[in-house]
C-alpha cells in the first residue's frame, strides 16, 4: 500500500506549542545568525590554535603536568581548531533536520569523516618525533587506517550527494505544499530546536568538565593523556544517541504524511545508519573506520534504491 494523506488536526494547545517552537527554530536558523555563528567559530578555531601552540611551546620548556595536558609536539595543536569546526558541523546537522532528512544524514557522514581524518593528526601528535613513525609499526598501521579511511569516507560522501541529487517522482509528490506537510515540517522544526538546546547544554557541560579535568591535571591530582585525549568524543556519542531517538520519532510522525512502503523502509534504513555511526564513534581504531564505512555504504544503498523505486503498478491499474 502506498498513499499520502492528511492527518487530523492536533489539539489547539499542542499545535500552539509546536508552532511556537517552530518560530524559535526559524529565528535560530536565520541566515544572518548562521553567518555570525560561522564567523565566531572561525575566530574561536584560530585563537584556539594560537593558544594551544603557545601552551605547547611553554610545555616544551616547563614539562611536567603542562606537557601531559597540552602535549609537546606542534601537531597536537591541530586537534583544537578541529573541535570547534566539528561542533559547528553538528549545529548545521541539527538545523538541517527540518530541511531534509537526507541532508541531515549527509552531514552525519561528513562529521564522522572529519573525525576519522582528525585522528590522523592525533596519531602523529602522540609521537615524540615525526621520525619515530619510520620505526613504530603500530603508529604506521593506525595512521594508514585513519588516512585511508578518511579518503574513502570522503569519496563515499560524494557518492551519497550524487545519489541524493537524482530526481524522484515519489519524493516530489511528497513535497507538494499540503496542510499535512506544513504541519510535519513544523514538528520537525520543533524537534530540531529542542535538540539544539540539548546540544548546547552538552557543549557547556563538556567544556566545564574539560576545564575541571585540566585543573586537576595541572595540580598533579589526575593524569590526562596528551591533548586531553579525545574530549569531544563523549559529546558526539551522546548527540548521536539523541539523533537516533529523534529519527525514530520523526519516522513515526512522517507516517501521518505517507505510509508508503519505500518511505517507511528509507526512514528505517536511515535510523539503522545512524545507529551504526554511533557504534563507530565508540569503537576502537581501526574498527571505527570499518563501522563508519559500512554505515555510509548502507546509507547510499538505501537512498539509491529509494530514488529508483518504480511506480506502484496496482495503483496505476
TrEMBL record:
<protein>
    <submittedName>
        <fullName>Uncharacterized protein</fullName>
    </submittedName>
</protein>
<keyword id="KW-0812">Transmembrane</keyword>
<feature type="transmembrane region" description="Helical">
    <location>
        <begin position="74"/>
        <end position="97"/>
    </location>
</feature>
<feature type="transmembrane region" description="Helical">
    <location>
        <begin position="264"/>
        <end position="281"/>
    </location>
</feature>
<feature type="transmembrane region" description="Helical">
    <location>
        <begin position="141"/>
        <end position="164"/>
    </location>
</feature>
<feature type="transmembrane region" description="Helical">
    <location>
        <begin position="239"/>
        <end position="257"/>
    </location>
</feature>
<feature type="transmembrane region" description="Helical">
    <location>
        <begin position="41"/>
        <end position="62"/>
    </location>
</feature>
<feature type="transmembrane region" description="Helical">
    <location>
        <begin position="190"/>
        <end position="212"/>
    </location>
</feature>
<feature type="transmembrane region" description="Helical">
    <location>
        <begin position="287"/>
        <end position="306"/>
    </location>
</feature>
<keyword id="KW-1133">Transmembrane helix</keyword>
<keyword id="KW-0472">Membrane</keyword>
<feature type="transmembrane region" description="Helical">
    <location>
        <begin position="104"/>
        <end position="121"/>
    </location>
</feature>
